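pinning this so it doesn't scroll away 📌
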Amino acid sequence: MTGKCFGRINEVFVITMTFAFIVSGILIFSTSVYLSSASTVYKVFEESSKAVGVYTVLANRLVHHGLSSGLFLILSGLCGILGLCLNNRLLLISFSAYAGFVIALVIAVIVFVELYPFEVTNAQLMRMEEHLRTSYLKDEQVKQVADLAQQNFKCCGVNGTGDYLYSYFYNKTGYIVPQSCCRKYNLTGWNETQYEHCRMGVESFLVKNSTSTELFYSHGCYENILLSLKTVKTAAIITLAVVLILELSLILAIIYLIRNDPNFKDDSYDVEESSPDYFVGRRKQLQSSIPEKTASEESEKMSLNSPSSHSVTNYDTFRETPSI
């Protein structure tokens, strides 16, 4: 009873993991297709990476790897479903091989995430600052990327508000910081006058005893993004570890299913076939299948093989030979 219950639970687990392959593959593939299309966010990120020179091909690699990984997961899941529906041993073994490949890939990603330094060199950092000073407001795409980062990560500039001092933005507008660096104190946000004071970098406005750090974000985006990346890194390692455990469990479940479920028994080989009794019984079976010879066939064979028949034949041959 316990074995039957465990077998059903094991089969349900394999089915669930098979559908999880397909669903995750569809999500990854569709997300990659969306990013590779005419997406403003993707184009801005790609152009910004090219301009700054940091992680130049990151966006393309993410999209291409996402497309291939999503397609691989979908095909693997379909292989598992066909193996379960058709009770096909070979398809299930192939599905477990795909799961093994995923395990190897997960281990590689964990090692990469753990060892890869998610930091930029001082030269790259200086280049980012210089690009922000010279291109913000002049290049609309750079402005979109900077505003998006400053609003989402609650930061200002690459290393702080000083990045905008004597920049192209400062020379054109006379403002200390752009509007995306300003804090919002309520759900409705600030009005234009309040934003004007913020952009001018006044030390206090509306809030009693407030300072400039309360009016706009003083921390640089590089520091905040780095902290966010470390948080994402930890979450990614934990998620990948869980995926690794699930994939190992899936392979063991498939092995148990193939070995114990009679629907997946391989008829091409049986352990009993290797025993001597099997071969003896098989030989008797083959002998019994051979038709017995009739009595006339046996007598004819005996007459042909008898010595008298040979002598008569030789005598007749000698008699027919003409004399000289």
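📌 and the second one:
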Amino acid sequence: DIHHALSFDQLHAFNNELFVDHLLEEIKDRILKLGPTFGQEVDELLEAFLSWKDLYHFKQGFMDVSFTNGQKYDALTKQLIFIVHAIFTAAKDSLHIYMELDVYASLPLHTSDSLQDGQVRIPILASLIEVCQCQANFPKAYAHQHLFDNIEAKGITLNYNMKPNESMHSSLKELYQCHMNFKNIDEQV
């Protein structure tokens, strides 16, 4: 069974796909609909957000910025939960459910209660993806359906996701940007 070989990858399935490509624009649209000053206020709150270990601090806000690092979007998700909670009031809101599942996926320890609570939210998100305005035809649109099965079978997501390895790319990126002429790359490596 291919699903036993593959594992849910929070960084790529949630942070780089579902959040960045589909839900982030909805968040920005909702913020802008509340008025021009609300977007500035959200950026200021994000800038003033307290720092803690291994969490990226957004000094320039997020409304007019994009990132190439999925871990920054992961940090943004965690901080937006606290900053813009007023616009995610409905319990059946795709953004609200997504953020809850993202938190469940990040837990360093699961109990039977946390697994059960997270599992209850999976079909809600699946049905909301079907009816939301975002296109659900990207490769990892339904990867979250296997999230809690993977956790039960393989342990917490930190055991098998790409987050710990993402920082390994920085040295390759530096090598590429600082020491290459951007032509005939195979010969230079």
